[in-house]
Amino acid sequence: GSSGGGNGTSNGSGGSGSKGGKMIALLLPDTTSSARYETQDKPDFEKEVKALDPSITVDYENAQGSDSTQQQQAEAAITNGAQVLVIDPVDSQSAATIVNEANQAGVKVISYDRMIENAKVDYYVSFDNEEVGKLQGEYIAQHTPKGGTVVMIDGAQTDNNALQFAQGAHAVLDPLFKSGQLRKGYESYTPNWDPSNGQREMEAALTKLNNKVNAVLAANDGLAGAVIQALAAQGLAGKVPVTGQDATDAGLHDIMQGTQSMTVYKAVPKEAKLAAELAVDIVDNKPIPSSLVNTKVNNGAEDVPAALLQPVVVTKQNIQSTVIKDGFTTMQKIEHPSS
Amino acid sequence: MSPATQTHHDTAEPAPRPLLQVEHIRKRFGAVQALQDVSLEVYPGEVVALVGDNGAGKSTTIKMISGVETPDEGRILVEGREVHLTSPAVAEQLGIQTVYQDLALCDNLDIVSNLFLGRELHRTLIPGVIKSIRKAEMEERAIPILKELGINLPPLSTQVASLSGGQRQTVAVARAVLWGSKLVLLDEPTAALGVTQTKAVLDLILRLAEKGVGVLVISHNMSDVFQVADRIVVLRLGKTVANLTAKETRLDEVVAAITGSAEEVLTGK
Amino acid sequence: MSPATQTHHDTAEPAPRPLLQVEHIRKRFGAVQALQDVSLEVYPGEVVALVGDNGAGKSTTIKMISGVETPDEGRILVEGREVHLTSPAVAEQLGIQTVYQDLALCDNLDIVSNLFLGRELHRTLIPGVIKSIRKAEMEERAIPILKELGINLPPLSTQVASLSGGQRQTVAVARAVLWGSKLVLLDEPTAALGVTQTKAVLDLILRLAEKGVGVLVISHNMSDVFQVADRIVVLRLGKTVANLTAKETRLDEVVAAITGSAEEVLTGK
Amino acid sequence: MSMQLREGKQQQQGGLAGVWRDRIAAGELGLLPVMLALVVIWIIFQSVNSHFLSGRNMSNLILQIAEIGMLGIGETFILLLGEIDLSIAAVSGVAAAVLVLMSGAHVNPWLCILAAVVVGAVIGVFQGFWVTIIGVPAFIVTLAGSLGYQGILLAFLGNTGTVPIFNQTLLNIAASYVPGWLGWALVVVAVAGYAAGLIGIQQGRRKRNLSAMSARSMTWRLVLLGVVSVVVVGALNSYRGVPVAGLILLVFVVLFAYITQATVFGRHIYAVGGNKEAARRAGINIRSIRVIVFTLSGVMGAIGGIIGASRLGSASPASGGGDLLLDSIAAAVIGGTSLFGGRGSVWNALAGALVIGSVENGMDLLSAPSSTKYIVEGGILLIAVTIDTMTRNRRKVVGR
Amino acid sequence: MSMQLREGKQQQQGGLAGVWRDRIAAGELGLLPVMLALVVIWIIFQSVNSHFLSGRNMSNLILQIAEIGMLGIGETFILLLGEIDLSIAAVSGVAAAVLVLMSGAHVNPWLCILAAVVVGAVIGVFQGFWVTIIGVPAFIVTLAGSLGYQGILLAFLGNTGTVPIFNQTLLNIAASYVPGWLGWALVVVAVAGYAAGLIGIQQGRRKRNLSAMSARSMTWRLVLLGVVSVVVVGALNSYRGVPVAGLILLVFVVLFAYITQATVFGRHIYAVGGNKEAARRAGINIRSIRVIVFTLSGVMGAIGGIIGASRLGSASPASGGGDLLLDSIAAAVIGGTSLFGGRGSVWNALAGALVIGSVENGMDLLSAPSSTKYIVEGGILLIAVTIDTMTRNRRKVVGR
Ligand SMILES: Nc1ncnc2c1ncn2[C@@H]1O[C@H](COP(=O)(O)OP(=O)(O)OP(=O)(O)O)[C@@H](O)[C@H]1O
Ligand SMILES: Nc1ncnc2c1ncn2[C@@H]1O[C@H](COP(=O)(O)OP(=O)(O)OP(=O)(O)O)[C@@H](O)[C@H]1O
Ligand SMILES: O[C@@H]1[C@@H](O)[C@H](O)OC[C@H]1O
Ligand SMILES: [Mg+2]
Ligand SMILES: [Mg+2]
């Protein structure tokens, strides 16, 4: 049927009735590298859009880690009549094709969380990925005794973000490795960001270094969990700083336990809210307030108007003033991550 | 209409109940009507030969009785009761054992395992769950039966994949002999056998019949047929065209019935 | 040592060169010594029967000559030249065609495709790359040959998987007859055939020999053997134990050689 | 005695209805069951989302299945042999990498394509050799290969990440459309060509006194082809025309269907898949057949990779990963190609790719939550093949 | 005439050397070639990194292969039937999710385990039913299933992400070790038990006048078992002792090896895998065999998932994903189990899991770049199976 939009439901069934109605498509990359997409980005974004303009439907798609799936989903969204695509690209480069298709169809694109390179993107809303790696690196630099040995468990080499995280971390740590202030004992990328691969890598590192490990840079909370598991087997959990990313409940739980030291909190609710405001303004043909867009980022094709948020380091000390205060999660959920 | 009742059991003494009655079965495979109208009977202790040209439907008939295929029409009765042979397991439970023309052995198993397949001697360790195979006993029991069939065999732990044609056939026959309690169906059981082995199998057939087992045997070898059969049922183009008492029939009559060159003579008989 | 030279070619007229010479071949499969010492010869236009008990090594011998297996020791000569039959393709190129005991047909292909397998009639569209099959011609050529073998067949586009035992055998025999230019090896070619079809195949064998083709045929049916064979080679436990001229031999002598009950008599002959 | 080739007689007996009854009984339904499943899937999606059957979405669907379709064709060849190729997706990734890297170095686009295809072919030859001559199971060779090629891909692109394509020729492979009139012309050519072929063959058979298709049956087939192609081209022309990538896929399907069904080489593939030993004994060089088929699979992997890269406008370390492998095997199997060799056809791969593509496309249109999508996709897949299995139920008894 | 069961005679003829010669000629080498490949792999890694054969690393290795090993056993059962299970990894993910969620709700840990296993069993029954009764190819049923279970996993964990395990009992499955003395005691029990079994069987055979193993041959086997187990336990005891999870795996292998080799049910699995139709004609209920085997596979998937979750201390939407599926199938196939049914053994799965695990572990120790890792893993896999293939080369002629 083509009964027109406006039923305001934000779930999938809205898709069919939205011909000619107002629609925003939210295209997220996967469900496995991090829990954030399903637990944070999607509900926050949908909630915000509904609050701003209930007549807009949100068409949500998750590409399950495949860039060609994401392309299919973008095509479906355009076919369904979306006026704005909010894309967190699986792949920053290949998503340029999606932007081209969108441009041809007169659909606006907001590059969300990860930049889409070399394409005419309308807006960019994100945190800075290299900055994430830098924060992790700096934490390690500050919390490892002089001459200490560092293990780096990086993300999947097939994920551009992982490369950027690693770049950021190396930007901080490489000078220290060079000067001999710290020693790099082991480093490995982790296929698929798969924690069980990460656990194996950490075990190898511990075996190889005979447990003389003074700090572990784990690229995200999933890997941090695996690292902690391997450390625990050697009675080292809690004695060695371990980094993370995403401020997942499981990660925060480990931080409360003292087994993980920090996580990089990317205030997703804020990010989602920003993106939602932008998208709604575009759909409703409202002018974009300059307060929203605070900078420009070059993506190879042009300077994209951007709203950049600062990632924040969360430790046991500031957990209350950051993730809890933002309503990102609750103490209840952190203590019982399964609820 | 068919002369099916005209057997040598049709005498003064009270006719025993037939072990097997096949009544007007039909079977179609795609475009081919394999069986048009097949009827036959086997009495306890009787050896019935099923003969006919290639493609006449003999093997298909046997497969109906052994539960491998199900007829499109017609009935099959065992000891007077209609049965629905929906799978070979059903036929086995009725005491029907079969040697198939293509032998149907598990190439990846050894001789003993094939002989006892589906009827392994075992010791129940956990009732209904774990039954441990009694390998040595099985081997022990297999030896005399194989010996009786008079064949050279490689070690009994040899996979049947590597057996010669006759050796394979012997395994299949031994299997049927071991387990056939009521009715044994043999589809060209001596086709691949040497002179001595053929004789051994024919002897075995007679001995089975003496024990009261009904035997239905397919063969193209008329001398074998006349050696063992009490009755000869002839199939042509999927129809039973003759049902003859062996002792009262001459070879050329059977051949004529098979080839159809003298149909009138026989049905008029 | 063996009486291999004692054939009916051993006369005054200049002996033609043998088509096939098998000299002292041996073959072992794991723990089984299948062939111990096998020697035989086939002359052009001659029908040689290879007989022996089950498991004597007949099929193994034929497989050596057709390139399916390679001997451990011994030589094979074709037209006087030693050949290394490393694959059936090599044997085919030498003009050797074989009907195997297990028939070796492709069940998923139809009758015509099996008849012409490896020798399809075709039209070359792009030389060396695309050869388009001439289906209608193949079918046309197949019909008379099958007719000659006198068998009922379903439509020629039927998969051979659904053929009866005899129908399959007929397809395999027709294949060998179609392509055998020099030497035809037949491993129990009539085992599954009816009376008429058996006669047709025996006639065919004789006609092949008349055309100068050498025929080596395995059979357990002594009456068939005596009907067609010029010479009879007997295998026992993997050894050639007798090489007899058919016309000068009695049935019981052959049986004795097969079973070994009169070994001395024969070798002493 | 009399040889009764029952053919002619029997087929005339029942007339068209009789032929169909026999076919259904024998399970010889070819593509019909899958097509039936496909139609059901389409009806369901269309009733839930009216965009589904729009020209635009059909156009998207065709582009979306182009890569899987190509890989499915390659996999079909392998499955017909009774082997399996677990590397075909990884090969597509490596080919894509070669393409983009060479194109990035400003090599002529046609040379880039050639190079990518050659890489696929070389990999195929290597795998075919290992499977055939050394005798290692294809499962292992191609699994090991798949790991190796993933490594190569990472060595190529691991440090640069995604490499975009700038060359317009390469981008156009998946981004251009056949003009409307040309689309219609192609319909005419296709129907006329099919008619000519059909009539030629049947006349040849009649001349030789062999059973032949009735004129009515031939008319039916032509009408069916005509109607379907008019509808499809009409729908696509309502958007931008027939996508060139879709046309390329179709050409490959027709070409390879011809090769498998009507050439000596194709016949031999079926023979080897049906009974390797019988094929060998018939004097067929089964080694060369297998090496060639593995090579073909490598080439099809590469061609799929090229189309995929063109569509995505780039290649990345993730190219050829994800569900691509299982999807391509599934495309072949859903269509009805057996995993045990000797049964199936290239058309099956196209049908299977359409089923998979339609399900994914339809679920995307509905924008259901990920968990629902997975569950529904699994369910539809199962039901589609169940329909297929049930309608050709009797096949089981006849075959294997 | 005389039936010559050549057995006894022939085996004595050549003595032990003769037996071996015959076995090598016939390709009946069992696990030996894989073990050979494994030893080669170990020597190579040890020479590159001296930690490789340390007790500690061996202990890690054992824990690392526990999950793949369990899944490999399940897959072996399926492969013996001539089927394939593409869902076993996804099942392990769902079972892990059930486990952690129930444990998070403070359910008794043993109940959690039971629930996870039951879920695996139910899935297995469902799949077995669909494959057997409806007749849809296992490839499709389990592929569709795999999608569905991924969906279920997401429905369970999509909103929470990673869920840690707090219950110590559950964590201990993969984190505890058998005390040193108990390890030694187990060696004694194992060797003594094997000796008792062997002697019992051979005496039974002698009593019945059947061919039996020579005393020398028996001694050799016992010595081999003794030496290997002393070395392994010694090495493990030098670290923390035998890992409990490894022991569980071993118990499963021994139990299922017994079931497949020595029970009626096991024999019937081989029969169905070797010739389905022959098995059916022998009156075997092939339907129930297949349903049971699929159920077993589901159960093994679940057990693997439980061990995996215990080891990782959590479950997440990524559980059961990644390379786990292909790794488990590969474990079975590398060990020598045929994809075509009827050939192989549960021991093969253990050997295969050790090969895969050793390669991954070794590469991790070297902390090579991902590209190198993939390439070397592929290469070693290929070479390992090539060694296996070449040493049992004659098998090809004999089999299939
Ligand atoms: N599964 C099947 N599918 C199709 N046709 C079949 C099938 N089984 C048998 N037929 C056909 O049915 C007919 C009878 O076959 P059947 O095997 O019963 O013959 P038969 O009398 O045993 O012949 P033979 O003496 O050659 O063994 C043949 O024409 C055969 O082609
Ligand atoms: N591939 C093989 N592997 C192991 N043993 C084999 C193999 N092929 C044959 N044999 C053995 O070699 C011996 C001879 O077999 P062959 O098939 O040649 O006998 P045959 O004379 O043809 O017998 P039949 O008359 O029964 O067909 C048999 O004992 C058989 O078990
Ligand atoms: O947030 C991270 C995301 O950016 C990356 O792509 O995948 C891993 C996540 O932890
Ligand atoms: Mg028959
Ligand atoms: Mg033989």
TrEMBL record, chains B, C:
GO terms for molecular function: ATP binding. Residues 20-262 form the ABC transporter domain. InterPro entries: AAA+_ATPase, ABC_carbohydrate_import_ATPase, ABC_transporter-like_ATP-bd, P-loop_NTPase. Pfam families: ABC_tran. Keywords: ATP-binding, Nucleotide-binding. The keyword Zinc does not apply. It comes from the Bacteria. The keyword Cytoplasm does not apply. PANTHER family: CARBOHYDRATE TRANSPORT ATP-BINDING PROTEIN MG119-RELATED, SUGAR ABC TRANSPORTER ATP-BINDING PROTEIN. This is D-xylose transport system ATP-binding protein.
From TrEMBL, chains D, E:
InterPro entries: ABC_transp_permease (IPR001851). It is found in: Cell membrane. The chain crosses the membrane at residues 29-49, 61-81, 88-107, 113-140, 181-201, 222-239, 245-270, 291-312, 324-342. It comes from Alicyclobacillus cycloheptanicus. The keyword Iron does not apply. Keywords: Cell inner membrane, Cell membrane, Membrane, Sugar transport, Transmembrane, Transmembrane helix, Transport. This is Xylose transport system permease protein XylH. It comes from the Bacteria. It is a multi-pass membrane protein. Part of the binding-protein-dependent transport system for D-xylose. Probably responsible for the translocation of the substrate across the membrane.
